[in-house]
Amino acid sequence: MRFPYFPPADKKSHSPRRRWLGSGRYWLFQIGGWGMFWLVLTLGSLNSGAPEGMIYKEVLAQTLLTGTLIVCSHLMRVLLLALRSRNFSTRIFVPGLVLSIVATSAAVAGPWMYLSICSGSLGDFPQEPDLGIAFTVFLFGMSLLLGVWVCLYFGYNYYMRYQQGLVERLQLDAAIKDAELRALRAQINPHFLFNSLNTLRALIPRNLDRPREAITLLADLLRASLTMSQQRTITLAQEMETVRNYLALEQLRFEERLRVHLSIAPETCTHILPPFVLQTLVENALKFGVAPFETGGEIFINSEENAGALHLTVKNQGALNALSSGTGLGLKNARARLHLLCGPEATITLTQDGAWVVARLVVPLKPSTLTSLHS
User: Fold this and answer.
1) Are residues 304 and 161 both part of a single domain?
2) Which of 169, 191, 225 is the C-terminal boundary of a domain?
3) Domain that holds residue 159
4) Which has the closest alpha carbon to 6: 174, 153, 169?
5) How far is Cα 129 from Cα 24, in angstroms, rounded to an integer?
6) Is the pTM of this model over 0.85?
7) What is the mean pLDDT of residues 125-132?
8) Least confident of 3-17, 131-145, 210-224
9) pLDDT in tens, 202-222
10) How deeply is 26 buried, as exposed, middle or buried, from its count of CB atoms within 10 A (0-12, 13-18, 19+)?
């Protein structure tokens, strides 16, 4: 199991500048927290009744200690971000973190003990066992303070992650409710159109196979649209049925100009994804990779399971700049639905590979957002 239980720190979430210098909010908490620690120590020294010279030394030592803790805790943050970027397991992360805290405390304890002895703030310790005890106490105290800081750091990150999850859940619920309302308002017209298509099909003579087949395929697509609009997710097999009907309908239009190559791994057919996401990619491939050319074009559709995710690829001839000249509304909607339903790990990317435009759809096999929705 990976630790900690929130996304790893990568270059996208933490730029090099933010990783090393931190954000304004981070420094507000950092200075404020350690400032309160310094204030408590200083008030304790001022109320101790010690001689003025001793109080001055104690306050100076406490100020240096607080500054040292600020630097050490900031370096611990850099280390934590580095550990998160490596995505270590709990068995490696926790011992490494504890060892780092103790090593940092030990590295500070030695010079600090030397300065304390030279300044006389430790008093007279002529025997080595007493120095060893003092070193051990300081090491334990330093480790305890850094350990508390690390716990607060994790607690804050967990809290922010929880709040982010609540916001995403509310956004998803709002989007689903809005989609349901729009679907209810739009159901009357599709049902009317569906019935009208059946009427038109009945009016076409039986010897005219191509028009009857076109209306049948269009009616099947409309039926799928009515059915799947009520579902948040469907299986790849269901999505492929819609894609095949759509391609069969377009085959009647383009005839030999449209050449489709399917390579769907059987083990991927039961994996889930939002409806019409793959169909949108296929529609774009046909619009920009087949329709503009007199000789038509080829479309390759591939599915595979890799690294704990469903990978779908749609490849067509063309150029990305031609695709970007369109509105891109279908892709924007597909990306938005994919992010809301399957989480940030699910992506749609478009790349240029020579004379081919490659659309890649990646859906985690067990997306956390879907799990929380179904629980």
Assistant:
1) no
2) 169
3) 16-169
4) 153
5) 45
6) no
7) 53
8) 3-17
9) 777 877 877 878 888 777 777
10) middle
